[in-house]
């Protein structure tokens, strides 16, 4: 599954834009659980060329990692980073981000909430498969 | 000119403005001079927002219609196009309320339009 396409559908469901009761000022979207986060793919040479940057706030404190390295280190962060960029910024956006749960591997601790598989109606993703 | 005492005129003027500003935060509801400024701002913003309200509500309706349309395989723009072509002109955006409250009727409308298309 491709990174951006997945993140885009996740963000739509978290925000609640697929529901007829959509209200932009209210947190009424769904929780989304992502498993097998280490299997996310990117096309082309992005695996070795896409950079993730972070800055510690001190001068000279910029750290750069490639997609590859980050995937080996903390694969959940890749999906989180992608989805966070697609959610609104601001207080509500940060709250929406807490509705995303990402896990490496196929297990997740939320069986008690009886999750349903996410209905994907994005043509690009359907064509991919 | 006869002598004029100012009496309670000033007090009434100030009270008028402070009553308008009741409920404002902090000094804006207590001090006369700041309250005057805030009253002015509030009135200006109310004027502008009465016009903005029409725009924002329409945006909300369109987003909701889009959500329902995409669930059933089309898009807001496609749906509106079909509605206009088949003379379902009755559908002012407020009838996005139909989509929210009475999903079944909304589906019936969509089905009818699809039949007329084919």
Automatic annotation (TrEMBL), chain A:
SUPFAM superfamilies: Ribosomal protein L13 (SSF52161). Transmembrane segments: none annotated. One of its GO terms (molecular function) is mRNA binding. Pfam families: Ribosomal_L13. Keywords: Ribonucleoprotein, Ribosomal protein. GO terms for biological process: negative regulation of translation; translation. One of its GO terms (cellular component) is cytosolic large ribosomal subunit. PROSITE patterns: RIBOSOMAL_L13. Belongs to the universal ribosomal protein uL13 family. PANTHER family: LARGE RIBOSOMAL SUBUNIT PROTEIN UL13M, RIBOSOMAL PROTEIN L13. This is 50S ribosomal protein L13, chloroplastic.
UniProtKB/TrEMBL annotation, chain B:
The keyword Transcription regulation does not apply. It is found in: Plastid, Chloroplast. Keywords: Chloroplast, Plastid, Ribonucleoprotein, Ribosomal protein, RNA-binding, rRNA-binding. One of its GO terms (cellular component) is ribonucleoprotein complex. GO terms for molecular function: rRNA binding; structural constituent of ribosome. Its main location: plastid. The keyword rRNA-binding applies. GO terms for biological process: ribosomal large subunit assembly; translation. InterPro entries: Ribosomal_bL20, RIBOSOMAL_L20_CS, Ribosomal_protein_bL20_C. Pfam families: Ribosomal_L20. NCBIfam families: rplT_bact. Binds directly to 23S ribosomal RNA and is necessary for the in vitro assembly process of the 50S ribosomal subunit. It is not involved in the protein synthesizing functions of that subunit. HAMAP family: Ribosomal_bL20. Belongs to the bacterial ribosomal protein bL20 family. This is Large ribosomal subunit protein bL20c. It comes from Ceratopteris richardii (Triangle waterfern).
């Amino acid at each position: 599954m491709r990174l951006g396409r997945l993140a885009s559908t996740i963000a739509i469901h978290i925000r609640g834009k697929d529901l007829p009761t959509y209200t932009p000022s209210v947190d009424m979207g769904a929780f989304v659980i992502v498993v097998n986060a280490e299997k996310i793919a990117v096309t082309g040479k992005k695996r070795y060329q896409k950079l993730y940057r972070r800055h510690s706030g001190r001068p000279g404190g910029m750290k750069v990692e490639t997609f590859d390295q980050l995937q080996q280190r903390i694969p959940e962060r890749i999906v989180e980073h992608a989805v966070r960029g697609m959610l609104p910024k601001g207080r509500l956006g940060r709250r929406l981000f807490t509705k995303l749960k990402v896990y490496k591997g196929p297990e997740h601790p939320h069986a008690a909430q009886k999750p349903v598989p996410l209905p994907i109606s994005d043509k690009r993703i359907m064509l991919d498969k | 000119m006869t002598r004029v005492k100012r009496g309670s005129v000033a007090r009434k003027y100030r009270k008028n403005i402070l009553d308008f500003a009741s409920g404002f935060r902090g000094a804006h509801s207590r001090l006369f001079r700041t309250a005057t400024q805030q009253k002015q701002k509030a009135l200006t913003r109310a004027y502008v927002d009465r016009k903005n309200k029409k725009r924002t509500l329409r945006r909300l309706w369109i987003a909701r219609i889009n959500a329902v349309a995409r669930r059933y395989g089309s898009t807001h723009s496609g749906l509106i196009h079909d509605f206009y072509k088949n003379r379902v002109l009755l559908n002012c955006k407020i009838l996005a309320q139909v989509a929210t409250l009475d999903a079944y009727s909304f589906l019936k409308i969509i089905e009818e339009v699809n039949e007329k298309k084919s």
